[in-house]
Design goal:
Elements lengths: L2 H15 L6 E6 L2 E7 L2 H4 L6 H9 L8 E5 L5 H10 L3 E4 L9 H6 L3 E4 L3 H13 L1 H7 L3
Parallel strand pairs: 3-4, 4-5
Antiparallel strand pairs: 1-2, 1-3
């Protein structure tokens, strides 16, 4: 088990308990979690508060991001991938990309190492949510 992805999953489950979309993220440097976040679009009525954005906001101004790794339960979308590229995060570890392919090509084209762990728990969490909330999910991904 990956302790950092487990922390991101805990964030995703917290978001689900709050009535939101179950995607979670953590930012790690030197084996330590700097910040945690989860998708808060529904809770905050804010279309850009995706899990990765929330996590970066929670981290605040940490200086350089090059030595950090961003963990997310789902492959980042173009918005979140853009933030990864903008801040120079060099590595992103995701729980899965089967339910949403995201913007891996954008990140990789900017030299970001992307690791897809393809975890069943992450896939199940998202598939259950999408099945039960298709309209909310389509809104989240801009469809």
């Amino acid at each position: 088990m990956d302790q950092f992805l487990e922390a991101a999953i805990a964030e995703a489950k917290q978001g689900l308990r709050e009535g939101g979309i179950p995607i979670g993220s953590v930012l790690v440097r030197n084996g330590e979690i700097l910040a945690r976040g989860h998708n808060r679009r529904v809770q905050n009525h804010d279309p850009v508060t995706h899990a990765e954005i929330d996590c970066l906001r929670q981290a605040g101004r940490i200086g350089k991001y090059q030595q950090t790794t961003l963990y997310s339960t789902l492959m980042p979308c173009f918005l979140c991938a853009g933030a990864v590229v903008q801040f120079g995060i060099r590595k992103v570890v995701v729980g899965e990309s089967k339910t949403f392919a995201g913007a891996i090509s954008l990140m990789e084209s900017h030299g970001v190492e992307v690791v897809d762990l393809d975890w069943d728990e992450c896939k199940q969490l998202m598939s259950d949510f999408i099945e039960n909330n298709p309209q909310l999910w389509r809104e989240d991904i801009g469809e």
